[in-house]
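agent: user wants the structure for Diaminopimelate decarboxylase from Portibacter lacus. delegating to structure tool.
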Amino acid sequence: MELKDGKFYLTGGVDPLEIAEQYGLPVYIYDSAIIKKQIDRFNNAFSVKKMKLNYACKALTNINILKLMKKWGMGLDAVSIQEVRLGLHAGFKPKEILYTPNCVSLEELSLAVELGVKINIDNLSILEQFGDHYPNYPLCIRLNPHVMAGGNSKISTGHIDSKFGISIHQLPHVHRIIETYGLNIEGLHMHTGSEILDTEVYLRVADILLNTAKDFKDLQFIDFGSGFKVSYKNDGIETDMEDLGEQLSTKFNEFCKDYGRSLTLIFEPGKFLVSESGYFLTKVNVVKQTTSNVFAGVDSGLNHLIRPMFYNAYHNITNISKAEGRKRIYTVVGYICETDTFGVNRKMTEISEGDVLCFHNAGAYCYMMSSNYNSRYRPAEVLVHEGKHHLIRERETMDDILKGQISVL
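agent: tool returned. relaying tokens verbatim.
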């Protein structure tokens, strides 16, 4: 969002306050130009013969976002059979989708087989069951490198106590299952967590994965997952993609030379691609001063944006109704009937009731984690694309709250 002549604008000169007026509040906005910029930045950071980005769609699955990803050459990383079906609906071919679930039944994996997508298995029990039922179906195996990485314990997935992946110490058992059932292992995968800042940690995991890959002779690809940190506080603290790309490209190219042929280097960025593209607009219902705080209470809550309460996540907040002027300190809270805090002691231009506040970096895991808690409606979603704004999801109504309920009294 750019400040120009005392007003905030989205890409192409789109006025966010115009969107608020036309579609109502609260509302999620996604700027497609920022998504494309992030895709290009990622691709340009690496120098390998074959590379593929699979969009980790759990971050944001609106069908229009998926169609843009398809248009821009992405594959898809799906973690549920429903995400697989959304991807197929958006136009992805089955082999462009890598299905990476955890703790699902063989029945759900069987559905994925019927749909023809690539499958990634992360536990020995299911690997053995799958081999018994579908010995000829090509597979990817998700390994756990036992490296602690990530910005929060709830989003770290590669450590020894994680439920994700098959332990690298269980590789002898993996190979026994492969040999017993004659499995076709076409890929190896690791994902250590989200919000990884230290390039050296990522490269250490890469060494583990590449050393492990030497013992799998029929690989087509190696998937390094994602977890790259974005700058939530506009302080430039983020994963240095250019440095990582240079170092990891060197490692991967050397591996392929020793392996005897070029494999495809795969990543599955989600947050990195869509987080900065998203803005969440809310209206200030009340300004309430107490003995210790000045609260700005908005027409939303943890039902729409749970990350601050769930992860202690930071989202920059801007008063876009008053781009310039006197600054004051506010604690921004929501309307849900329990502790519901978006940000404490935030400095912004003086807030009046009726002003529009913008939560930045709201493209990833924001709408997707929303709920109907307190029987509130989920907000609308709007896409800004090529200088125009489009409604891409209607605001819910009471009919949506009642849908599926069955009255028996």
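agent: one observation worth passing along. Residues 66 and 137 are 26 Å apart (CA to CA).
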